[in-house]
Specification:
- By secondary structure, this protein is of the alpha/beta class.
- The chain folds into 2 domains: 1-37, no CATH class; 41-294, P-loop containing nucleotide triphosphate hydrolases (Rossmann fold, 3-Layer(aba) Sandwich), CATH 3.40.50.
- 36% of the residues lie in helices and 30% in strands.
- It is built from 12 helices and 13 strands.
- The protein has helices at residues 29-37, 45-51, 96-104, 130-135, 154-161, 168-181, 183-186, 198-210, 228-243, 256-262, 280-285, 287-294; strands at 3-7, 12-17, 22-28, 56-67, 70-81, 85-89, 108-118, 121-124, 139-142, 216-220, 248-252, 265-270, 273-279.
- The protein has a 6-stranded mixed beta sheet with strand order 9-10-11-6-12-13, with helices on both faces. A 4-stranded antiparallel beta sheet has the order 5-4-7-8.
- The longest helix is centred in the last third of the chain and has 16 residues, at 228-243.
- The model is unreliable at 1-24 (pLDDT under 50).
């Protein structure tokens, strides 16, 4: 039997037997969380450092963060090296997107540090605004689906990606570089973004983030809402950005199998903490991770 855990209504996870075409059982999110807690005793700081080759580019130390007065991340640590990719998986409400939000400046930071390391230079970006993180620290956030401006043309959407540049001419030049890279978008440059296919919209969202030429890409659910052929296209683009252009990628991906196949490192988050950390391949081969998150 091949089982897959799908999001269900009323706070449940449905485990579906695709061979038989029926639902075998229903597991509540609370039960998934409980079982996920048993995956491991948590990741040590040494394990996290080792996975980044002890040469972190993005480093989070003992972070406590959340929204309003609510703390979501508890004593959270993260390390990822330059040109490396990290995928965050876990049950709903585990704090995966909160990690991205915290790095980019969308949460309240109660304590802890977020740093960018480059050679012997360490830059604390914890308290920087999102604009400063994009403009001066090279951190870009690629939002979930439906973040394009549908009434604007493809070209105008790209110009919006350069809103922090000194002049509109600079933004236009950067947009032209994107069009050279992705002819598919160039063919649509004068069309409203609202007429693009799902895959083309995702390409536009990624490309808009590239206008400022960031070094770190925070990617939130790149496959959400896409047909399989477009999912492959998006991950091919991310692979090129990492391995050809040298970007560092931190990703949240609801398709855990696809995310871990792509990423160098994987963290399983439970209740704002890391339950287990390993290489993408190690987590793919972990039977408990497979049972809870990979569909069998």
């Amino acid at each position: 039997m091949t089982a897959k855990i799908d999001s269900g209504g009323e706070g449940v996870k449905r485990v579906t037997d695709h061979a038989a075409g029926n639902v075998d059982s229903i597991i509540s999110v609370e039960e998934v969380t409980r079982q996920a807690r048993q995956l491991g005793a948590g990741a040590t700081e040494k394990q996290i450092a080792d996975l980044a080759g002890n040469e972190p580019y993005v480093k989070i130390e003992h972070l406590n963060a959340g929204y309003g007065k609510m703390e979501i991340l508890h004593d959270f640590n993260l390390q990822v090296a330059r040109r490396q990719s990290l995928c965050l998986i876990g049950p709903n409400g585990a704090g995966k997107s909160t990690v991205l939000h915290s790095i980019y400046g969308f949460t309240n930071i109660f304590s802890g540090n977020i740093e960018i390391h480059s050679g012997n230079d360490t830059r604390d970006v914890t308290a920087m605004s999102s604009s400063d993180k994009l403009k001066t620290a090279g951190i870009a956030y690629i939002l979930q689906d439906k973040s394009v401006f549908p009434g604007m043309t493809v070209e105008e959407n790209l110009w919006m990606g350069g809103y922090l540049m000194q002049s509109q001419a600079d933004a236009k030049e950067a947009a032209e570089r994107v069009f050279e890279k992705y002819p598919r978008l160039a063919e649509r440059r004068s069309q409203p973004a609202g007429v693009l296919s799902g895959g083309e919209r995702r390409l536009l969202e990624i490309s808009r983030a590239l206008v400022m030429e960031p070094e770190v890409l925070l990617v939130d659910e790149p496959s959400i809402g896409l047909e399989p052929r477009f999912i492959e296209m998006v991950f091919e683009i991310l692979h090129e950005l990492q391995h050809v252009e040298g970007k560092t990628i931190i990703m949240v991906e609801q398709n855990a199998k696809k995310g871990l196949e792509f990423a160098d490192i994987g963290y399983v988050l439970v209740s704002g903490e890391i339950a287990i950390a390993g290489s993408g391949d190690e987590l793919l081969e972990n039977p408990a991770v497979g049972r809870l998150f990979l569909g069998g």
